Amino acid sequence: MKFNTKQTLLDIASILDCEFVGETHFPVLGMNEIHVVEAGDIVFVDHPKYYDKALQSAATIILINKKVDCPDGKALLISDDPFRDFNILTKYFKPFQHSNTSIAASAIVGKNTLIQPNCFIGNNVSIGNNCIIHSNVSLYDNTVVGNNVIIHAGTIIGADAFYYKKRPDGFDQLLSGGRVVIHDNVGIGALCTIDKGVTGDTTIGEGTKIDNQVHIGHDTIIGKKCLIAAQTGIAGCVIIKDEVTLWGQVGTTSGITIGEKAVVLGQTGVTKSIEGNKTYFGTPIEESREKLKQLVNIKRIPELLNNLKNN
After folding, report:
1. Domain containing 21 — which CATH number?
2. Residue 304 pLDDT more than 80?
3. Does position 310 have pLDDT exceeding 90, yes or no?
4. Which of 150, 154, 176, 216 is the S-S candidate for 194 at Cβ 3.0 to 4.6 Å?
């Protein structure tokens, strides 16, 4: 998430009322999660296990809960609760905007695009040309929809990330300030849910087709011309390359990569990154031919035991 105007280290420290290490005019351009940070970004870290990863990342401002040696060319924001303070910054730079109309005044709707009754189109939403948005679809603020996109009834695009920190009295949510970006010629079925990024974009590539009742988690990037069948659940921060096929009721863990033209058969649990151009099945996931051989052998166990007894 980039700020509308350049901030300084002093500006951010003043918002958070926290100590800092670095030049007061050190430039701050935005805030992001560790996997998408760039120079000028703030990243937060609140566990010693991840200190080095954050300090050595591309981020140049580290919001951290311990005073440590500051790497050259970087700055620190010292906080007793970086998770809380990251949320404070999200609220400050991307506050929730109330809307009291079905289609916000700031939304842009392209030529020949049809919007059926009972839809909600939020603030700063952009919809391209020749789209069909069926009834009861909700497009949360800042969603971007390309040309020739079809979204079927009841789908919700841009809800918050499922991202929580456990506290003694419950769970605190990490607030979401990102977007969903849907490219041209995408088809999305009924009752799908696509969460926005925490700070970046959840992206659906050109020509991808998504069946009914599919969930896509925050910051996931889906490539071009993918097929995703019904009741599939894709976790956050997943990368799905071009022309991947996920059949019905596939589930994935977070932070993995699915290679180009991979095919994942129904009810498979994708528990790790997998190579492209192969077909997979089962939980834990394996290449389908190997998994099917194992299932055949399992069925033969009674026969093998009987042969042992007879011998």
Report:
1. 3.40.1390.10
2. no
3. no
4. 216
pLDDT in tens, 76-100: 999 999 999 999 999 999 999 999 9
DSSP result, 49-70:
GGHHHHHTSS-SEEEESS--PP
Among 134, 152, 215, 218, which one carries the catalytic annotation? 218
Q: In 10 A of CB 237, how many CB atoms?
A: 23
For all residues of the chain together, what is the average pLDDT?
95
Please write the tens of the pLDDT for every residue from 141-151.
Answer: 999 999 999 99
Specify whether 169 is located in the same domain as 212: yes
Instruction: Clarify whether 218 is annotated catalytic.
Output: yes
What is the domain range of residue 83?
Answer: 2-93
Q: Which amino acid is at 75?
A: A
Integer Cα distance of 310 and 294 in angstroms: 24
Query: Does residue 112 lie in a domain region?
Result: yes
